[in-house]
């Protein structure tokens, strides 16, 4: 399985060599990803997701800012995706079909989610907000990001062994 | 609550449309935790043993701090370096070294859990939720239940 990633990246590199059009669209995809990430980071701060007190108050049922944002976002997102599906819209950069991929419910999903939740409660951060915090000058994001990298490596080790 | 925080309904509306915009531009759902796996892959080949990582996710998470900085500079009009976690100070160790260790441990659980579950709050709750993926909605419910129970216990024991 490990080869898939490198072959993925490899195929992009090969594509870059083969045609300038593909190379341009790869650069556009990368740039678009950085811009989208910036917009999302800005939004995460705007909604208060990087505000520790709002995270604490959410868990203690004292404030419902973040749960309302999440619920409203899923509702809005689902409406938008339903519209895209009806329009059979294609993606802007690559003109591909827009992914509506669904995944299966597995014991790993449940266990992983349980572990993730404990990490969320301990750090008042998520993989997305921890990075946005770094830009805001909230230095507690550094150990959290470091931990996420460690956890990701540990999963890699576990995943390779279990195969 | 910080005074720059926008109304919840507006925030949810904007985040929801952002998720749709990500699908429109790139054809795939947004995700944060995969970016970390991409970063690890860049450091050493094949140590992850995971297939089909979208390499663009690394570029996505590299954009996140730019957005955070832009917000600090242009909305908050102040860039403060801080290590303070507000209400969370009540349950975290006073000693900064222990505090860092707890945060690294928590981060490790976030990283491991997200990979095992196949996504984090961004990928499962927001993007998976938008396509009404049942597994993602279940993941979201477990994220929230697990975090709420843990946090309630932490605040009861340590605060």
List the helices and strands and how they pair.
The complex is a heterodimer of chains A (163) and B (159).
Chain A: H1 2-18, H2 20-46, H3 52-59, H4 65-87, H5 107-123, H6 127-136, H7 141-161
Helix pairs in contact in A: 1-2, 2-6, 6-7
Chain B: H1 8-26, H2 33-43, H3 56-74, H4 96-117, H5 121-130, H6 134-158
Helix pairs in contact in B: 2-3, 5-6
Q: If you had to describe this structure to a student in words, what would you say it looks like?
A:
- The complex is a heterodimer of chains A (163) and B (159).
- Chain A has 163 residues and is mainly α.
- Helices cover 75% and strands 0% of the residues of chain A.
- Chain A is built from 7 helices and no strands.
- Chain A has helices spanning 2-18, 20-46, 52-59, 65-87, 107-123, 127-136, 141-161.
- The N and C termini of chain A lie close together (9 Å).
- By secondary structure, chain B is mainly α.
- Chain B has a domain at 83-159.
- Chain B is built from 6 helices and no strands.
- Chain B has helices spanning 8-26, 33-43, 56-74, 96-117, 121-130, 134-158.
- In chain B, helix 2 (33-43) packs across helix 3 and helix 5 (121-130) runs antiparallel to helix 6.
- In chain B, 55% of the residues are buried.
- Chains A and B meet through helix 1, helix 2, helix 3, helix 4 and helix 5 of A and helix 1, helix 2, helix 3, helix 4 and helix 5 of B.
